[in-house]
Design goal:
single chain; alpha/beta; Mannitol-specific EII, Chain A; 6 strands; about 45% helix; transferase; PTS_EIIA_type-2_dom; phosphoprotein
């Protein structure tokens, strides 16, 4: 089975306050890693999804996501922002950003990842672990251990 997240898909210092720029940064990692075949095409799908409903969640979380023909396998990218990025949540900016990329036909996998992630994000210890993780490999390990459906 292909790993959902690897250290290559983690950006610990997102240095923008624009959600589209942040999403492009994370998607660029997926493109570089071969998980996304057309960066602009995938970003158009993510933006279309964002326009339907903001993907900011309470507690400083952003979850931009899309099912796209340009995604090869279900993949998760993660970004951390010290200053926060507005993803449309009522309580303010997101400091933890998860970009979920799912193949166009991957309905159940996409929803499984989203549901597992949402369940874990209720847990403050999980969020704190991600906020304080010293490096990308640690983040990938935490997410893989806590979120990946077994």
């Amino acid at each position: 089975m292909t790993e959902l997240i690897t250290a290559d898909f983690v950006e610990l210092e997102l240095s923008t306050d624009d959600r589209h720029t942040a999403t492009r940064t994370l998607a660029g990692r997926l493109f570089k890693g071969g998980r996304v075949t057309d960066l602009d095409g995938f970003l158009a799908d993510v933006r279309e999804r964002e326009e339907q409903m903001p993907t900011g969640l309470p507690g400083g979380i952003g979850i931009p996501h899309a099912k796209s023909a340009y995604v090869t396998v279900p993949t998760l990218a993660f970004g951390r922002s010290a200053d926060g990025i507005d993803f449309g949540a009522d309580d303010g900016p997101a400091h933890l950003i998860f970009l979920i990329a799912a193949p166009a036909g991957g309905d159940s996998e996409h929803l499984q990842v989203l549901a597992a992630l949402a369940r874990r994000l209720i847990n403050q210890e999980f969020k704190d672990a991600l906020l304080s993780a010293p490096d990308a490999a640690t983040v990938a390990d935490i997410v893989a251990r806590e979120v990946v459906p077994s």
